[in-house]
Input
Amino acid sequence: MVMHATALSTSNPYYPKRIFYIVNLRPSDKKSTVHPYGIAYVTSDDNGETWSSIKTIFLSEQWDKDVLKGCWEPSVYKGLCAVLEECGNTSAAYNKEDKAFAVFDFDNTTIMNDVEYSLFAYIIENLKFDFSPEELHKRLIDSPVSPDFKLSAGDGRIITAGDLADDIYEACKELYGKPLDEITNTDAYKDYRAKIRYMYDALDDVMPSADVSAWLFNIIAVGSTGEEIQALTRESTYSAIAKAQVKKDSLGRYLKKRVQDYPPTWGEGKTAAIIKYIAPLHGGKGPVRTLYNQQPKYLLQRRDSF
Output
């Protein structure tokens, strides 16, 4: 059993401070199981002193036989096997001079959650920004965002990105340079953490994904080297990220400049990246059909069309 995430309910009128632990149930490597994995939760109404019994809210499909095949969801496992049977080295269509290949989407597909946002969350929680509060304020409202960019406050009111950036800046000034264990219970820390996360979510509601990612990248990576970002990503327990579409200076530090004509790898940009950079390595041929669609196209996710 692996604990995955926590949440504190503040809007529930019956249990305003109930803590939820969302739990991944996974089989032991040494035991067989009918269900490869499940999702469950436990709750506490006394700040974690006692917990409810575990409540299962999802179980994956059952295997045909009680045989452990890792943690694969059965339909995914069967789909992968079908592709290998059709295109692998034991199929009649196999050509060692012209091998088939597959492309897998990563964030929120191969893995749970998004690597870039997970790193952002780690930086927020641990105040890992490698610059001053003044520089953070500048980056929060730098292009593609502007100070007068309008955002929803969630209660019908409209606020601006500049208002949020000002509040985050004021809170960060109180926290800057102080040990983390001395500030995590302060109002300034809670205010800063909540508002910078909210700013990301509010921008994500009204801006194209590529612009949101550009804003995020400007905050967490511009001015750092790839090695520094990789080290910080490993520190946050997630795989390292790569940003081939962003230019670097002579010292290898990322700049706030994109490589010309490099497609942003979100939505339809994924298809464009495959066509431009991956297919040419395979004689212009596209990847084998994916598990999301039965047509032999460049489809990575249901919303990505070619």
